[in-house]
Amino acid sequence: MESSIVIPSNISINKNNKNLENSNESVKLENEDSPNNNEIPKNEYESFHLANLYEQTSQYRHWLFTKEELNEIREEVNKESIEKVGENIKKEWEYQKQINNNIPPLKPINFLTVNDQKLLALFYETKISDYCKFFKFSRNVLATSIVYFKRFYLYCSMMQYAPKNIVLTCLFLACKSENSYIALDEFLAKVPKGPSPDVIKELELTVSQYIRFEYSVQSPFWALHGFYLDIQAFLNGPDKNSVNVEDNSQRRLNTTFETSCKYAFISLYGDLIFLYWPSQIALACLVVASKNNSFTEDLERYIFIIYIIIKCKLKNNIYIYNIIIIT
Amino acid sequence: MTEVINNLNDTNTPTNDINNDKKKENSNKKNNRKFVINPINNYRKEKKIGEGTFAVVYEGVQLSTGRKVAIKKIKLGDFKDGFDMTAIREIKFLQELKHPNIIELIDVFSNKTNLNLVLEFLDSDLEKIIKAKDVVFSVADIKSWMLMTLRGLYHCHRSFILHRDLKPNNLLISSNGQLKIGDFGLSRDYGEPSEVMTSQVVTRWYRAPELLFGAKEYGYSVDMWSVGCIFAELMLRTPYLPGENDMEQLDIIFRALGTPTEETWPGMKLLPVPSKVEFSIYPKTPWRNLFTAAGYDALDLLEKMLTYNPAKRISAQDALLHPYFRNKPRPTNPSKLPHCTKEDINNSKKRKNLDGEEKISKRLFV
């Protein structure tokens, strides 16, 4: 399913931005070393004002990787937990042997591989989606809980914590952080063969620790909606009252947006959210959706203009749309 | 057109230099990536410096650097639903907001029964300074505090976060005079205007009229009303609109600013409280006699902040662009601002009672 989404080659954008950030940091450090430490350097606020807001998020700082980095982390975590679990099994066997000398010798164990865990994770992510449909949670809760789940199992192996209860914990946590509060008893009462509340409360701490207490998640939906509003302004001008629903482009934009939301749901599975910015994923969803709705030409025009705006570091795009519409 | 895009892209192809940088960055990142799962051993609590209903604050040390920190310990034992939502909110927003005028969350760690937020150590707050009878401050000092408050608040708002509990007590002051917005326990993310929210937020004296009217849909303007009240309080050195209960709060606001009408606030009658209650009509009390030292520009900004109609109330960004901040006198450099770490015991007691009452509404989240 995933392979149907074509992601434009934008890794370089990621990396370039990161380099920029690094160079900024080094400049800041130099400033701090300078003797007049008491006064705030003049550019301190400026850097906050001009910086891309997304680059300040914990998602960018701690949860954005390259494919190689992801694999490395996973291999490492997997290796460590195999050692731990293997050791425990051996200890258990030795203990058993002290009681009963006749037990069969320890058989080699087929541990979970990185790939196994990936496939299992995919299965449980669809489970989260099912739960969300059942509880009628919003798509923000869905996106957030899936991301919590992914982040948790990035630094932890399924051999250490069984996924079923982790799924419920991630959902419960996501409800709290996305303003869809539900009482724990009420929540668990509706889960068949659910664990006791104490289990969830304890896992809540564990999950929070592994996700570094970073509860804020930027999902592609938010970016997608932003693109929708921006493209609408691009097509119609900034005045909301002038939006003509009968207009062909506007109609095609609406259908494209609806389709792209479906792609955004699919994009939640797998590693995409670790590899790309939510806005990049959202744009990719739009590009794919535009092909089914003959919106490609309009979208390409929009992307081209945006590209120029970014290149020239122009600030007020609404103003520029007006110029483009007039000319 | 795609060709052009490709061509533009070509100018962006990474050179060898960038590749080298990448390698360097990767090695940096590897160190970064290995985070300590629960850094409980990196901090030591030294002494208790404050206590609230749900949390105790300690002074402590970050052992790896020797840095002085404040550790806010949130007890978890009493909550039947696990983590308290206010705790989750506070952590969630502070993890994202990195700004000179917003309190820094350094770390979070936990053990079985409590949750600990490691915050930067700030020994004073604006309330203490306002209450300290022996501290004198000038018009330029007030401008400096207002500027820092609005900068911090603007950063919250552009990050789509409503603070919902601004008051002098939550505007903390560092030892070098920097003002930092703290206590995000009532904050929430904002963005979909039609989402229903509770109107039981913000400490009463700083609560915007639309909240007192029971509005379920509101926006960044509720924070700006609070900033207006703080601005007035800084000039008067006493709370501007201190109501004893919600209805009296409205009465006090109307006496001070005049009763709003359908003309000054279109749509007001549709809100829950005004649709049921008939208010007595008061004229506006002239400000000139009250704020004797304030300049014309200051009163203009104050009036824009204390505008009844939330849609017409000034935004944090526009307030920062207001002539008040560009006119003389220039805002005082933070390091030269008056400072006070002592606590006036009588006043803090009074405030605590008020806080306790407000805490009840804190539990009725959403």
Automatic annotation (TrEMBL), chain A:
UniProt-listed InterPro entries: Cyclin-like_dom, Cyclin-like_sf, Cyclin/Ssn8, Cyclin_C_2, Cyclin_N
Domain of life: Eukaryota
Source organism (scientific name): Anaeromyces robustus
Ranges where the Cyclin-like domain occurs: 126-209
Keyword Repeat on entry: no
UniProt cross-references to Pfam families, sorted A to Z: Cyclin_C_2 (PF16899), Cyclin_N (PF00134)
GO terms (BP aspect): regulation of transcription by RNA polymerase II
Keywords for this protein: Cyclin
This protein's name: Cyclin-like protein
TrEMBL record, chain B:
Name of a matching Pfam family: Pkinase
Keyword Kinase: yes
Gene Ontology MF: a single term: RNA polymerase II general transcription initiation factor activity
Binding site for ATP: I49, G50, E51, G52, T53, F54, A55, V56, V57, K72, K73
Top-level enzyme category: transferase
Presence of keyword Phosphoprotein: yes
Disordered: region residues: 1-33, 325-353
GO BP terms in the entry: 7-methylguanosine mRNA capping; cellular response to nitrogen starvation; nucleotide-excision repair; positive regulation of Atg1/ULK1 kinase complex assembly; positive regulation of autophagy; positive regulation of transcription elongation by RNA polymerase II; positive regulation of transcription initiation by RNA polymerase II; transcription by RNA polymerase I
Protein kinase domain ranges (all copies): 43-325
Enzyme Commission number: 2.7.11.23
GO cellular component: chromatin; cytosol; transcription factor TFIIK complex
Xref: InterPro entries: CDK, CDK7, Kinase-like_dom_sf, Prot_kinase_dom, Protein_kinase_ATP_BS, Ser/Thr_kinase_AS
Annotated SMART domains: S_TKc
Family of this protein: Belongs to the protein kinase superfamily. CMGC Ser/Thr protein kinase family. CDC2/CDKX subfamily.
Protein name: [RNA-polymerase]-subunit kinase
Origin species: Anaeromyces robustus
